[in-house]
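In response to the reviewer comment on reproducibility (Comment 2.3), we provide here a single inverse folding case reported in full, input and output, so that an independent group could reproduce the run without further information from us. The structure tokens appear first.
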């Protein structure tokens, strides 16, 4: 059963004449007659009483007519909806990001993406890089912003990672408290300060722990296991300092940033996706906005952010 057959059937039922229905549909009358004959064969019943100059519906035709109208209306609605999705008027993007990137790069990207595409919804998954990679490989995400320092798992050959930014890690302290240093602080001095540490699931925690171990230092941790929002709030309240990505301190007047030296710690922000899945137009548009937002952030903060060329 084809839509053309149903469309011809409805036109004949409404007009009551094969030739005039064919003219309305811009098809040849013999072609329309063949479509109806095929449709009648498929449903197993005659649909019209054919009398000279008088075409009326049979009982089978009367039963089929409302259903045919609904099917045609559904088909038209599908075309409209698919057109809206193709035209970026509707749709959904499944984006994964680490907690630190949710409050920085993702927030900035969405402020640019949403006004341009208000009909596109964002389904955001906030998790560590390793979990995001697992969900991306399972097809649960369209793309993921990750900060994994090593390569992608060897067992996931379909995943592609595109580095976007190299971001410097800084030491955050409360603006209301005396500065912890004039311009920069080294790791040895940082180890003597009260430190608010992230949960062990954070990539940042692993990076800072590794730096302290390599230097043979033991940090003075006063709060441990907090999430990003809690860490920043604890630092604002003067409980200690924290090692954070530079971008999370944007528009936070209650926090002060000091550069960390000897060693300088950085992380690479990458956008990962599956190479074996064609992105939707909405996902492709989101990717473009993320890339352009990363470039804008690097331009605004060249001291702590650098584009990966």
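Designed residues, in position order:
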């Amino acid at each position: 059963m084809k839509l053309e057959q149903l469309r011809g059937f409805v036109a004949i039922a409404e007009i009551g004449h094969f030739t005039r229905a064919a003219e309305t549909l811009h098809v040849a009358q013999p072609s329309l007659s063949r479509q109806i004959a095929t449709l009648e064969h498929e449903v197993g019943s005659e649909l019209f009483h054919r009398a000279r100059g008088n075409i009326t519906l049979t009982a089978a035709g009367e039963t089929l007519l409302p259903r045919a109208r609904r099917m045609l209306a559904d088909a038209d609605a599908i075309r409209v909806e698919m057109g809206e999705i193709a035209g970026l008027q509707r749709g959904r993007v499944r984006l994964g990001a680490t907690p630190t990137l949710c409050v920085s790069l993702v927030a900035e990207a969405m402020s640019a993406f949403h006004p341009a595409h208000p009909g596109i919804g964002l389904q955001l998954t906030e998790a560590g890089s390793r979990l995001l990679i697992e969900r991306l490989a399972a097809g649960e995400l369209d793309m993921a912003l990750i900060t994994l320092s090593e390569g992608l798992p060897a067992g996931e050959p379909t995943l592609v990672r595109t580095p976007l930014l190299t971001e410097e890690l800084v030491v955050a302290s409360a603006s209301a408290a005396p500065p912890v240093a004039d311009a920069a602080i080294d790791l040895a001095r940082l180890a003597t300060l009260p430190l608010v540490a992230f949960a062990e699931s954070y990539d940042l925690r692993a990076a800072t722990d590794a730096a302290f171990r390599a230097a043979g230092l033991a940090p003075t941790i006063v709060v441990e296991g907090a999430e990003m929002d809690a860490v920043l709030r604890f630092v604002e309240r003067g409980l200690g300092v924290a090692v954070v990505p530079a971008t999370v301190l944007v528009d936070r007047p209650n926090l002060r940033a000091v550069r960390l030296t000897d060693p300088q710690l950085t992380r690479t922000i990458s956008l990962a996706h599956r190479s074996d899945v064609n992105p939707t137009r909405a996902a492709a548009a989101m990717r473009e906005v993320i890339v352009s937002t990363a470039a804008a952030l690097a331009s605004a903060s060249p001291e702590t952010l650098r584009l990966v060329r």
